[in-house]
Amino acid sequence: MNSIYVHTYTELGRTTLAKFYLNESLAMIGHIRLTSWYRIPFYRSAIVYYMHVHGYNAAAKLLKLYDEQVYLRARIDMMAENHLTWSRIDSARGNFAAAFEHYKAYKKLQDSIMLQTKTKEFARVQVEFETIRKAKDLKLRERDITLLHQQAQLQKAELKRVTTLRNLIIIGAVLLFLLLILGYNRYRLKQRTNRELQSKQGQINRQNASLKKLIREKDWLVKEIHHRVKNNLQIVVSLLNTQAAHMEEGSALTAIRDSRLRMQAIALLHQKLYQVENAGLIDMPCYINELVGNLRLGCDCMDDIRFHMEIAPVLLDVSQATPVGLLLNEAITNAIKYAFPEKGKGNIHVLLKQLPERMFLLSVADDGIGLPADFRTQRKKGSFGMSLIDTLTQQLDGSLELKNSSGLTLNITFREQWEEHSVLYNEDEDFVPGEYV
């Protein structure tokens, strides 16, 4: 009864009740002899339960015991059922070779069972035939009529078989002919599609070649524009130099010199743009080093001030490189002019560092005299240099910080603005410190 409950509740999907009755069966089965018939229902229901809950290892252990009971009773039908169960267990456990062998054994036993059934049926028919034959011996006329009737049935069956075979051959020939037509049609369609694809590919190749030519012409025109802008700016710088040569010392001459340095910073940018392949990105280490070198030469401080450079190997878009260059120009010029009075010796540190989340830190620090006590009042009144620094910082969408300790440190933090230009920076590389001696 417990085995029936286990089997029934398992088939209904109520595994909790099935397990309860299975445990009761386990408590009883130990008191039954190993060769007892009453173990067979328990094994079958337990195997069904474990197969249902995917406990294939437990099902395999019980199936071995079940096999022993089956072989003791030489039940071929139960043997076949066990081989089919083994095939399902091995397939679930991934042992497909063993599963296939058990399945072959199952089919072999099924064939044997079918053969036995047919043999019994044949024997039964033969007995019936002998009985009929003996009865026909008593009734010769009925026998002759029966034989004639059987011959007619055989002829009718043979005629039907021949007709069916002929129809199958005709249908097969028609299907084969249709398949040939379909295959030929597919071949012609594929050939036409290939020709169309080749034609379109040729058009695409010609368009790509035209686009490449246009891109080369565009790059050449952009570089030529940068070259001409740089030359025009150099002319403006030359005019400013000429004008400064005919002026006496004063605020006007200072303004002309500052303007000349700003023009040189912008001209240097355009020079870098027409010298590289990518006309939209500036190599910041090369640009800043050359910019600082020009400032040192222009301010006549080569022997008094030492420059210390820590520039990260990055590329910036020209829209950000321009304000960065002008900011460096203003900050370094102010440090040269005001941090070291009476041409005293000193140091200026220039830093460009990449921060997390695509942020950058631009810093210019000196060890000079620092800011005057009334700097905040003067800044509110608005000097042109500080106004320009504030404006350029806003253009970068950055933040400006001034530290007046052991000299002046100007820190500007800003974010990379252009997603289409990637910053070529290797995080495994450290800064590339440099120094002008």
From TrEMBL:
Keyword Phosphoprotein among UniProt keywords: yes
InterPro entries linked: HATPase_C_sf, HATPase_dom, Sig_transdc_His_kin_sub2_dim/P
Keyword list, A-Z: ATP-binding, Kinase, Membrane, Nucleotide-binding, Phosphoprotein, Transferase, Transmembrane, Transmembrane helix
Transmembrane region(s): 165-185
Enzyme nomenclature, EC number: 2.7.13.3
MF-aspect GO terms: ATP binding; protein histidine kinase activity
Enzymatic reactions: ATP + protein L-histidine = ADP + protein N-phospho-L-histidine
PANTHER family, sorted: ETHYLENE RESPONSE SENSOR PROTEIN, TWO-COMPONENT SYSTEM SENSOR PROTEIN
Designated name of the protein: histidine kinase
Organism of this sequence: Chitinophaga pinensis (strain ATCC 43595 / DSM 2588 / LMG 13176 / NBRC 15968 / NCIMB 11800 / UQM 2034)
Lineage of origin: Bacteria, Pseudomonadati, Bacteroidota, Chitinophagia, Chitinophagales
